[in-house]
């Protein structure tokens, strides 16, 4: 995720010359405009200079620029954008557009970032730094061909740019060219052996190749370098490199079966202060995976500080089908695994007739194409927690992981929850503690070297409304209507690379349970998921077309993808 700025900062600094009042005895000017000034001191000095009200035009734009740099060091991207926007109003420049574009990039707003980088390039002269940063934004949009083209331009401008080689390698990895990726990452390491970031990226490639010993060795060296010489570039979020090093080494240890060392690395990840979206996503993953390693009986924690889960009053035990009674053995590299759950026999809301049938049909289709399937039907909270934990634990070494859920679902405060059959929906109760947090499942699976396919036929109406009197035969419990679009993994993070998530209907809409034995969505899914040689997104397009036709346009399935290439669930 490396962004570059240093050379453009020099251009801004060259314009810094102000009246003597701007540099009183406490030397506000140098504190404001020196790249190595600590963030708080930089922001404070620039704020005091602005308060003097002696600058106008280009000089005042310079002060706003440097305060934006200070906010960037603190990871406060909204304030970066606000100050950079004011600087652009006063005096547009390449450096300010580059800084604002980089802040939009960090917020995951890639189209706006690209627009800012375009404006920076139009102001001229051509800049390898800006080509590099625009390449990052194209990579964020998963347009790897355009990303590679921009990195080519950056390397042409600066053949010694280690980070441009590194990020071009990451883009090649996303396109499946692991050997080309290794070559670029190796060149980045040769250009600057002191940088931890290329080693971290090579760690991920070794894991993708199944060479866990090399992955661990690279991760260890990256952590050593990050501790020895923390990155000082103002565009690198604080602690992000060290957090990334720990999470990648932890995942390698876990894949190798060294759970003690994996656990220590997950703890180290969580002990570091995170400011940027990527680091928070890594910590969300560390929190879930640490819980899986350290306490097999504990509920999966939500992505929140000091999570607590309170038991709820439960009805008589529910019947379950094919729920694992013990943790599966660790999956071998290349294993394709699936978790399939169908909940319909709800004790406190009107039952849904079709989810058990839907789950059985999808589970059979997945088994027929070679998946190892953990299947559960009509699961209460304890059983649903167990089958989910067991699956997440075993999936650490899987190449492809599929999660399918049919039943009630709810959106509460923008987060999605899956509903066990024993949840008592009482007004005023802390219902979310009794449900399964979808974001937590996503965080537990988040790993760029594995393909994750998550499918939810759970967009039904709200049994919580009017104390479940009008629940009906539909599958969504709405804090708001339908389920929310899954734009994040944990707090502030983008959907993890290598993940596709599909809903039976669009965000905020409700889906039909169906008049027959299966819902319209699951019936179509079970028919098409096993089609040989059909790429998964093309498969979902066929499912969508069938559902739209069957429901006479009342239901339109929806999906969001950050897959890093074509994925085929059934062999060609």
From TrEMBL:
Pfam family, one: TPR_8
Segments of this protein annotated with the region Disordered: 297-333
SUPFAM superfamilies: Caspase-like, TPR-like
Caspase family p20 domain sequence ranges: 334-463
Signal peptide location: 1-22
Keywords: Signal, TPR repeat
Residue ranges of coiled coil: none
Biased composition (Low complexity): 303-331
Start-end of each TPR repeat: 94-127, 128-161, 162-195
The name this protein goes by in its record: Caspase family protein
Naturally occurring in which organism (per UniProt): Bradyrhizobium agreste
Source species taxonomy: Bacteria, Pseudomonadati, Pseudomonadota, Alphaproteobacteria, Hyphomicrobiales
